[in-house]
Amino acid sequence: MKNTTTNKKVLITGVGRYKLGSNNSAARFFVEQGAKVTITDPKQTRELAAGLKHLKGLKATYHLGGYRATDFKSADLIIKNQGNRSLDPFLRIAERKGIEVTTDVGAFMALAPPVPTVGITGTRGKSTTTALLGEMIAASGCASYVGGNMKVSPLNFLDKLWRDHLHGRCAAVTLELSSWLLEGWKKEGIAPAIAVITNIFPDHLNTYPSYAAYINAKAEIFAAQDKDGIVVLNRENKETRKLASRCHGQIFWFSRRPFVGRGAFVRNGKIVWRDKKEETVARLSGVRYLSGEHNLENILAAVAAAKLLGIENKAIVKTLRSFKGLPDRQEFVREFRGVRYINDTTATSPDGVVAALRRFGPKGKKIVLIAGGKDKELDFRAMAAEIKKRVALLILFDGTGTEKLIKELKRTGAKFDLVPIVKNMRTAVKLAAGEAKRNDVVLLSPGAASFGLFQNEFDRGAQFVKCVKSL
User: What fold, for 331-469?
Assistant: First the structure.
């Protein structure tokens, strides 16, 4: 890889929590490339202790406790912290001076060798689809590199990817991309060869001016593609169907039902792929661990991308038999006294809760739901209706989202008298365990943000798992 950053002044706008995550990885990468790195964060040193330990010994300048306009004016390159809107006024200062602004993933895309790259975004299912496709690539015998919005920056494997490319080894990259990571890609002129959008539902409306703005951010995944680009879209989702008219390249679809056109679908219990010809890829009976309609769509999205990469069916089938899913996403934690405990902490929007309730709450099953938290300016009507239908006991975390949910529950006529409002996970799990009986399910599926009570959704999930395992 050609070094283009020696002696450049690079500004990293945040200390990350995870060692291999975006900001910390970018800081290490650019220091190793010989850049003059400054790390800035509005939080004080004591608040950043968990992240700073991952940067110990790094030869960088630290400006903590607030942003400085001079840092943004003097940089050659700025790596922005995704989703942090307090940065916007400072980034505008830099952009007016013509300073390059990107993310760690944007930097990776600009520096990566010409190997097959699949970018996956969506409101729900992008993590599972990304991991599943990564496993399919590995099962095919190619080197599989997976990163992005899943605690692993692709800058961590950029050098190794170049070595594989220069030695002629088969390699492919799969990136999970949030809407925040995609902002600016059209302007930067970057796009994956294959762009996958799993679905789009209202989310993060506390950080976007409108639902349309959120959709436009998602659409940047293919905005810079030319006629040779490929986009894989969900035929079951109204928003992704609309995006087809905005694509510049080839469009492939996936659907739980047969359709006319190119893509992946289900017919008579089989996953079918149709491009120039039609073929059966796998039987649904061979999918061992991933269940539910939402996971079927994740599977179809991954299959479509795998077929477009030229992966053989036997590698796809092998992966579908062995893939057990990801932590924090409808994750089975344990069974205790006949009660199953499920961690679905990444369901941070109401549509995710609806999917979980439909999977774990068929007739005859009693669900004890732990939900609620901070509002993201979302609509809780569908979630309230599903709770009324499938939930026997509801436990809610304190927060603005909880207040909205309670109002919607009252409108549905749901009879949840004296719903317990709790401020910590220990109390929530203790209450749930005390009420649940044999064959019941205790489900953590919040439908809201974690902030105020937890560091993030992963901290919330980790606390749930710890409390459940201590029962």
Answer: Protein-Tyrosine Phosphatase; Chain A (3.90.190)
